[in-house]
Design brief:
Length: about 250
């Protein structure tokens, strides 16, 4: 398993809490985490990225105790793309992506670091904007630049919080195809998504959260059964068979 989350509990200052969360994220797959807003998905990703520490339980990444890893060692394994990123200084796009090389840079970036940053920008289709100030980009362009920053980091596992939320249909498709290609190359991806239709079109395995707890379909249900999803999202839904899975629409 890429990640083992075992009996994790966490209390947020706002009063929200995760309660006894246990999941095993398979290695080399595109796994999707689904659930309503406020169900705990982003909080769980923060814990798995090492940004917060659980009050109870244990998290392992690639067989190593996450809590025992240094910041640098963790950054060489885990790439994390947050849902929001607020620029402070008008760094160029290339400079922002180059910060992804921080786990490998001791003094100043070397030629290899700049090469990796440039390759990452080409991969996400943002190379032509490498000299533009990051603060002048649209929300979708910034999201692609931050994805390039994660790729420049060369992680073994990537955690993505709503990676397509600011992207138009064309760039959504581009990014999701990229994630599938990364998985084929052996990288593990766990992404939080809002849209179950996107999830079921591209995902390999699925996890569900509700009220700070994990939910899973019953033994006779599939992840795209309307009866299961209605309980998860607390709204009336219909499902239409599509390519061996289903499309989900409001009833």
């Amino acid at each position: 398993m890429a990640f083992r989350v075992d009996g994790v509990c966490f209390s947020h200052p706002s009063g929200f809490s995760l309660d006894n969360v246990t999941i095993d994220v398979p290695e080399g797959k595109l796994s999707i985490l689904l659930g309503k807003n406020g169900s705990g998905k982003s909080t769980l990703l923060h814990l798995m990225a090492g940004l917060h520490k659980p009050s109870e339980g244990r998290i392992e990444v690639l067989g190593q105790d996450l809590a025992s890893l240094s910041t640098s060692a963790r950054a060489r394994i885990i790439g994390y793309l947050p849902q929001f990123h607020s620029p402070v200084f008008p760094y160029t796009v290339e400079e922002v992506v180059l910060t992804g090389r921080a786990p490998y840079v001791f003094t100043v970036p070397k030629a290899k670091d700049r090469e990796k940053a440039e390759q990452a920008l080409v991969t996400v289709g943002m190379h032509d904007l490498r000299g533009r100030p990051y603060t002048e980009l649209s929300g979708g362009e910034r999201q692609l630049v931050m994805m390039a920053r994660v790729l420049a980091q060369e992680p073994k596992v990537i955690l993505l919080d709503e990676p397509v939320s600011h992207l138009d249909l064309s760039n959504q498709s581009r990014l999701l195809r990229l994630l599938k290609r990364l998985v084929e190359e052996g990288i593990t991806v766990l992404a939080v998504l809002h849209d179950p239709n996107v999830a079921f079109s591209y995902g390999d395995s699925f996890f569900f959260m509700k009220g700070g707890r994990m939910e899973q379909p019953g033994p006779e249900e599939t992840p795209w059964d309307a009866s299961f999803l209605e309980g998860l999202y607390e709204t009336q839904l219909e499902t239409v068979p599509h390519r061996g899975r289903a499309l989900v629409i409001p009833r």
